[in-house]
């Protein structure tokens, strides 16, 4: 056999290759512009006459099809050189899912330029529809509708049906490319009554952003009186936008503000600011701003990041007086934080400054944390030391400055180095992790200590040994098959005693006692106190895992500390040492037997008193969309005892319809059907004070094409004062929202756990969902 023939025989045969999927251009949501002129024209009907490549006349069940455009009529003439279609009698156009019906049509098909007489139209994206005396098609994306109506209310079979709301306008301009509609000379009717004259308005044809005036907000507030707020949205670019707002408060005065947002490939952020030149209630100028920025860029020497979180207000009462302020400004401790970071390979470094603004209340004053002015941090974490070793080192030097308004500020510099070395031994059935830490700290004080010293130091080693086993077996519980685990765990830690009473408390506090901290080396968070520990923590957890999915259906856990010697290091000088050999017992349980039911609890139990010290017990029932109830009981013995309940639940239909939950389950964003009421809210009740602390209670009514919301909000602003607001909103689905008071939808999303909006477009409809 010749060499060439032999090589060809040994070459792989294409027929022997496995089949591969290839992308097909046949089903495209949007046809490319350069492809449209090449698309053929198909015509069909009962009778076709004419001349090839010149003109075709179709009588009876006439149809013309080209790309994503279909024209049907009783009679249709198509002139090939002009690409002109003229149709009469029961004319219907389907263009990429958007439909038009009327009596007469003249249209250049590819350019989609022409007019439609006495047209009815329906848009796929929003379900909106209407009627008009004439539709002028300017091109494939733009059209002008004359003497038109526009609504998203869907027609029923009743002969007397009228939409609940409708926009009637002299002219409506529709831009499908920008997905924006504008109406001129219009009026908005609700329940047959004109409610709002609209000389000019723009509205969305999808959920795409667009520039324009947003619906005004009118509110009634116990602190500010009658409020009016008018926002304007500016869609600057696909990755930048701004919202400008101006408003007036009857009891205070004029307020101006705005928000700017940006999103780039290497950085993102937002800025929000408000100004009230003169507040008649406080007799002063009021202002507040909040700015966040996160950025990361790559350089030849590593990644460099800049992060900013700046928050400031004009006075102590700002958080109390302005409930609509951005969320970061509703706190009484406002941070202004700036950090510059660098990372390359196993090393990273950071320079940070942090300054606090404390908004004081005479009834409950707070002590602000120390300011970091600045902090220098270096971290080394090698990825592969070999022999299974893990090592890390942190070096930190920080200058702490107290608020100068406080007496005797204890300003100073703290520097520390912390190194730790561990060797994890891991196996499918268990683990053993010995760890050795060394913590060296040096202080320099601006003012001498009581002993006259201006410096202090501390060096301490810590040894810990963490170990655990995992046993598994097949089990059945209440008729279900599970894999049950038994996971005992033992954690030992030892740190020798060093007297730390003269050291300040810059950033240190006692850690919470829970399942996350009971297996840690230090009882304090921060770096000013290292507890002298010689203790063993024993615990065991058992889980029931679904044999098919691996989901955790049941979790039970218990843990307790056994102390071999007293803990003499206390948070404050003169504090009592911890001498109890046995700590409180932590008990935890979580049950998620079905996706609908959930239960979780953690109890800190004192065996000596036979009482719980702290308890958190929560339950959730969510049988489907828009149906959820959450309840949490929280107890901190001698401090607080509260019940927190949140819910969203449909009620019966308005006119004797189905009871909630008996109808077919609808997808998220579609509600439970028209004519249905929902109750929604959250109540936080203090058993100790015997009063409601926070209250949010409201009702929603879904009429399919409009949604009504009314919410009463009463939030505690201090120990003795609260703020009450009445919020009301009508949402014309696919068009606009009118609000009385702040947006109740924001309040419900912020306060009600697992709340779902009744109308939320989760996916863009495909043109093939309305394909002819």
What does this structure look like?
With 772 residues, the chain is an all-beta fold. Among the domains are: 34-213, no CATH class; 606-616 and 630-772, no CATH class. 3% of the residues lie in helices and 57% in strands. The protein is built from three helices and 46 strands. The strands form three sheets. The chain has a 30-stranded mixed beta sheet that branches. A hairpin with a 3-residue loop joins strand 45 and strand 46. The longest helix has 8 residues, at 3-10. The protein is elongated and about 105 Å long. The model is unreliable at 1-12 and 653-663 (pLDDT under 50).
How is this fold's topology laid out?
Elements: H1 3-10, E1 42-44, E2 47-51, E3 55-66, E4 69-79, E5 84-95, E6 98-108, E7 113-117, E8 120-122, E9 129-131, E10 134-137, E11 142-150, E12 165-175, E13 180-190, E14 193-204, E15 212-213, E16 217-221, E17 225-237, E18 240-249, E19 253-263, E20 267-279, E21 284-299, E22 302-313, H2 318-321, E23 333-344, E24 347-358, E25 371-380, E26 390-401, E27 412-422, E28 425-427, E29 430-445, E30 455-469, E31 471-477, E32 480-494, E33 509-510, E34 524-525, E35 534-546, E36 552-563, E37 585-591, E38 597-606, E39 611-624, E40 627-636, E41 640-653, E42 676-686, E43 691-702, E44 706-716, E45 722-732, E46 736-740, H3 744-751
Parallel strand pairs: 16-46
Antiparallel strand pairs: 1-3, 2-3, 3-4, 4-5, 5-6, 6-7, 6-8, 7-10, 8-9, 10-11, 11-12, 12-13, 13-14, 15-17, 16-17, 16-45, 17-18, 18-19, 19-20, 20-21, 21-22, 22-23, 23-24, 24-25, 25-26, 26-27, 27-29, 28-29, 29-30, 30-32, 31-32, 32-35, 33-34, 35-36, 36-37, 37-38, 38-39, 39-40, 40-41, 41-42, ...
